[in-house]
């Protein structure tokens, strides 16, 4: 155990008016098998103060921080980092949650690899119906210590999962490197989590634990699902790509950046197209939904190709999955199938519920 006021881990939970989900997130931290941590709850809703009585969670390891004014997501993230007293720091969204073994497993890896600057774990995905989506990812349960560049390459190639803000960074390093960085002009920290993953690529060592020790929850009220401001996402995507280029600006890493760039562009492509699926699924007319989806996919393709060309990378050679033929055939077919699923899943699950009730 570390000294009082200086725990091993600080967990910063950002929240805005989601008390029930927040309660679940906090409980998932309090139920950890390793007890040496603090929880900093940053409430960005000035109209509703949070307290132990309000949420029914009375634990001395929780620090309630009710901001007198709305700081926005980025301000909230960095405010919690600044107030943290732990040796290692991580953020947790108020609608996500931990496995009880998370902190103990991270601590084991810290001891095993002589306290590296950063540890990431994989995550499980839970959709808003309460039914986990079929996992296409195979968890190996391996614990690897990697050079930062190798970690980043494997992440961008899809060899393992990580959520940028859910890494456990040395608190001092995270503060000195600027915390979460602003991308885009809106109130939310769009794509900022990916900059944290890219920054990990500059570290001498990163440990990755390939177990689903964090659950990422997707639901209709989350900003990731409800926000359909495509221009804001495109602006943030452009800044992500240019900022990542600046991070790898010296001669020894510039060539590596060119190799990373298709994977970084793919982050934007995946996000943009998921937004397009949500937008199209809400359309009342099927043909209009299909046309809208394909138009958005074409926009994402044009954006990615322009950013690759700006950096001197041939889209066809640098990123085969972004070739026009691939988008025109394979991806469009898959997108249409996913659109059908999104449009009719609510009816499908409602019918299952009605059948079970009968």
Explain this structure to me?
There is one protein chain. The chain folds into two domains: 9-223, Alpha-Beta Complex (Spore Coat Polysaccharide Biosynthesis Protein SpsA, Chain A); 228-357. The longest helix is centred in the last third of the chain and has 34 residues, at 324-357. Helix 7 packs parallel to helix 9. The model is unreliable at 129-133, 321-330 and 347-358 (pLDDT under 50). It is built from 13 helices and nine strands. 50% of the residues lie in helices and 15% in strands. Strands 1, 2, 3, 4, 5, 6, 7, 8 and 9 form a nine-stranded mixed β-sheet that branches. By secondary structure, it is of the alpha/beta class. The N and C termini lie far apart (54 Å).
Short description:
Helices cover 50% and strands 15% of the residues. The chain has helices at 19-30, 52-55, 72-83, 102-112, 148-156, 171-176, 192-200, 223-226, 230-247, 251-281, 286-310, 315-318, 324-357; strands at 9-15, 37-43, 62-66, 88-93, 97-98, 118-126, 143-146, 168-170, 206-217. Helix 7 runs parallel beside helix 9, helix 10 (251-281) packs across helix 13 and helix 11 (286-310) crosses helix 13 (324-357).
Notable characteristics:
single chain, 358 residues, alpha/beta, Spore Coat Polysaccharide Biosynthesis Protein SpsA, Chain A, 2 domains, nine-stranded mixed sheet, 13 helices, disordered C terminus
Distance between the termini: 54 Å
**CATH-defined topology of the largest domain:** Spore Coat Polysaccharide Biosynthesis Protein SpsA, Chain A
Q: Count every beta strand, where a strand is a DSSP E run of 2 or more residues.
A: 9
Gyration radius, in Å: 21 Å
CATH superfamily of the largest domain: Spore Coat Polysaccharide Biosynthesis Protein SpsA, Chain A
Q: How many strands, which pairing sense, and closed or not: the largest β-sheet?
A: 9 strands, mixed
Annotated CATH architecture of the largest domain: Alpha-Beta Complex
Q: What is the H-and-E element order?
A: EHEHEHEEHEEHEHHEHHHHHH
Structural class: alpha/beta
Low-confidence regions: 129-133, 321-330, 347-358
Shape: globular
């Amino acid at each position: 155990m570390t000294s009082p006021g200086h725990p091993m881990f600080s967990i910063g939970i950002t929240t805005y008016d989601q008390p029930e989900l927040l309660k679940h997130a906090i409980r998932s931290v309090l139920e950890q098998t390793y007890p040496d941590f603090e929880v900093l709850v940053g409430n960005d809703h000035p109209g509703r103060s949070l307290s132990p009585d309000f949420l029914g969670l009375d634990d001395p390891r929780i620090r309630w921080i009710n901001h007198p004014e709305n700081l926005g997501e980025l301000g909230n993230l960095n405010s919690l980092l600044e107030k943290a007293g732990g040796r290692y720091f991580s953020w947790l969204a108020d609608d996500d949650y931990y496995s009880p073994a998370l902190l103990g497993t991270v601590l084991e890896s810290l001891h095993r690899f002589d306290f590296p600057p950063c540890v990431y774990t994989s995550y499980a995905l839970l959709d808003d119906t309460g039914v986990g989506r079929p996992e296409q990812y195979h968890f190996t349960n391996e614990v690897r210590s990697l050079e930062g560049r190798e970690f980043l390459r494997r992440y961008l190639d899809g060899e393992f999962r990580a959520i940028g803000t859910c890494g456990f960074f040395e608190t001092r390093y995270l503060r000195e490197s600027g915390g979460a960085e602003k991308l885009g002009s809106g109130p939310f920290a769009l794509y900022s989590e990916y900059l944290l993953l890219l920054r990990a690529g500059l570290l001498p060592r990163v440990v990755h634990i390939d177990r689903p020790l964090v659950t990422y929850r997707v639901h209709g009220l989350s900003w990731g699902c409800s926000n359909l401001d495509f221009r804001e996402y495109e602006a943030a995507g452009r800044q992500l790509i240019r900022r990542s280029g600046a991070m790898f600006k010296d001669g020894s890493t510039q060539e590596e950046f060119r190799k990373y760039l298709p994977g970084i562009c793919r982050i934007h492509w995946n996000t943009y197209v998921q937004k397009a699926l949500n937008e199209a699924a809400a359309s009342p007319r099927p043909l209009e939904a299909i046309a809208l989806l394909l138009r958005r996919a074409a926009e994402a393709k044009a954006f990615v190709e322009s950013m690759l060309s700006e950096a001197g990378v041939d889209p066809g050679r640098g990123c085969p999955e972004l070739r026009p033929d691939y988008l025109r055939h394979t991806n469009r077919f898959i997108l249409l199938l996913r659109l059908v699923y999104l449009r009719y899943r609510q009816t499908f699950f409602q019918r299952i519920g009605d059948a079970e009730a009968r």
